[in-house]
Structure formats: structure tokens, C-alpha cells
Amino acid sequence: xxxxxxxxxxxxxxxxxxxxxxxxxxxxxxxxxxxxxxxxxxxxxxxxxxxxxxxxxxxxxxxxxxxxxxxxxxxxxxxxxxxxxxxxxxxxxxx
Length: 95
Prior knowledge:
There is one protein chain. This protein has a two-stranded antiparallel sheet with strand order 1-2. By secondary structure, the chain is mainly alpha-helical. The chain has one domain. The protein has helices spanning 3-12, 17-37, 51-59, 81-92; strands at residues 67-70, 74-77.
């Protein structure tokens, strides 16, 4: 584990258990999506509490997280991996 990973892990340990669980769930899910779809999709992470995150929340009427915006149009908020896969496959032509 490098210095950045140690710092990030140390920062994460300061949060409540439910936040840490959400973080690990999301990191693992994004990793799975990256491995499954590789160069077919682009994953962009935006901090919801940043100005950019605030702007995107208003633009896409997002109030729950995680939220995935597919092709700048379709929005999915939640943790149902199968549902997001269906949306992605629909936009990728069933790949």
C-alpha cells in the first residue's frame, strides 16, 4: 500500500460505518463496471458536495446517491447492479 492509499484509508476510517460501507460498495461496483465494459464506457466520478457536483445535481434533478448519468440523458439512482447493466446494455446496443 502506497502513501496515497494509506492516507485515503486513514481519512476513510474517520467516517461512520455506513459511510465506509457505501464507499467500499461503490468502489467495488465501479471496478466491476470498468472490467466488464472496459473502453466501451467512460466512468467519471463527481463529488456531490463540490460545486460541480452541486451543478450536476441540479441539472439532472438528483437527490439520491449514487446516481449514474448515461449518455448525458438517462439517470439511474440506486444500488441495483442488474438495473444499471440493463440501462448500459441498452445504450451500447446489447453488448
